[in-house]
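Sequence only, no structure available. Ideas?
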Amino acid sequence: MKKKILFSFLLVFTLFFTACEEYLDVQPGSGFTQAEVFKSEKDIQSAVAGVYTLMLADDAYTNRLAFVFNMNTDVEMSGVSTNTVNGNGSDIACYDPKPYWTTLNSTWNAMYKIINTANDVIEGIEGSDLYKVDPKSQPSNITQMYGEVKTIRAMVYLDMIRIWGDVVFRTKSSTGDENFAQGTTDRNEILEFLIDDLKSVEPLMKNASEIEFGVERASRSFNQGLIGLLALTRGGWTLRPDENNPANIGHMERGKNYEQYYDIAIQYLDKVIQGRQHDLKLGFREFWIKQNNWETPVNDDVIFSIPMLKNSTGEYGYFAGIPITAGSHPYGSASGSLSLCGEYLFSFDKKDLRRDVTCAPFSYDQNLNQEIRLDLARLAVGKWSKLYMTTPLGGTSEKGTGVNFSWMRFADVLLMYAEAVNERFGPREDAKECLKRVRRRAFAQADWGEKVDNYVQSKMSPDSFFKAIMDERKWEFGGESKRKFDLARWNKFSEVIYNQYNKLYNWGRVANGAYVPGIDQVPGSIYYKLVTDPANSSRKILDIKGIDEVVTANPAGYTAFPFAVNWYSLNNDTASYEPRNDIKWSFRGFINYNNASSVSPTDPLRYLCPYPSKVITDHRGAIQNFYGFNF
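Reply:
I predicted one. Tokens follow.
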């Protein structure tokens, strides 16, 4: 069904709780008592809508959490061509952000505004007569709203933990007279509280099919899936500081009793699966076309989708998506600035249907003809494109596409369940079936025997099955900014980035004739020609050779486009052959051209961000940076 625009409801909301610019400094609303604000169900709906409104008010969930906080991995990648620190401190892509990067402070504040308002609403509902008289024997509108606000609060806290580690933890409404110069709470303590908190409200929440606006609100399935993700995060690995030496990067550590949390993950992710509220009915391409057309079915892949407002908020299709040059056409422009690593395109099985949906090695000119666009860190995310829109936004449109941010999908739940089961019991049959369900959508039915059944059955050990899960999440979620979080909880960040740096380095060498053991051929160049688009005879599209298999000679009628051959060349200043600068420095906070010989794949990688300088100042010594920040 066509997505209902939740913002038609949100825009009539009057925010009763006025949030200060400073984090955690929220004053009670002026002119209203709590009893008045939460007197009727409609009043409570308005207060709940205010929590969703704040998710977009300061760009926290319109672009920062979606793509600004991306780090260079084997999936998403923005090239860094210098060893010089950016003056504004924004070098997060290469693992070197600075405390004075202003986006850290504004994002911290924006996320605490959401949390503080959620605390106010939770307390208001608890004190309302409607909640007190509700029998709480089955889900009602009141218990649903109470549960969804707690669920959103837990989601925001999880995102903060994944960005900063330990954070300030508040679950009570601000009275305005607290001592705000407080320290942080251990991330595991927060995660444990949130898991128990969401468990307490889960039975009285409703399914997406039973609530207005469907998956644009936090449903019972999202609550269950989020419990699963919180538990995997608590049971997984995390970077811990060296408290005796703040200048030290720290060390990776797994919390005590981690097995208990994998069991919780299995229990609640299984509830989502057995609840049968979501599925993978739509084909992969069809699913993303509907996303670009503001259609969000309540019973398919999306479990929770942060609602955007058309012509106002959202950058999917603009910043994230295929680049478009404005012209006389009705689609406007798109920057396509969010990039995938060019090598990622070649990691897919050539029969994987997700590849050509996820990876777009081209852009569109002002006449909507395709132009080749592919390099080390120059590969557009094809899941979003304004050209998918059946009702275009207009020739002058830019950002503000209104395309939703799908925070959790059912494919995510299936793969998390398979991961958790494998961790505890090895590749059990139900874990295999979950992996198969994701791969069935990724391949044509004629290929299921080889690419689904045989492939999954070949992963017989826990290690090989886990590697398959790592790969599957890589191919399923390209451009959705999940990779960095996955690598962290798996304790695979250092290993993957170490290998990726060396892979890109060696691809350049092999493309230029060097012998590297284990690497036979790489795509030194690809070859293209323009042909008439069979769906629109007035446009030209690319016919590309060299992606399905390496092509070493220029096919007749095709133009050569250098790829890996450009990644390694003679440096005239040093008179030696070297990798290109964006290989040298794109991972420089961990491994780079100067330190590569001394870096190990088991060394800790600093994937967390520093606390903002202003937060440290405001806390008057109660918070300090570790992990080598400021040193």
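Residues 1-31 have pLDDT under 50 and may be disordered.
Hope that gets you unstuck.
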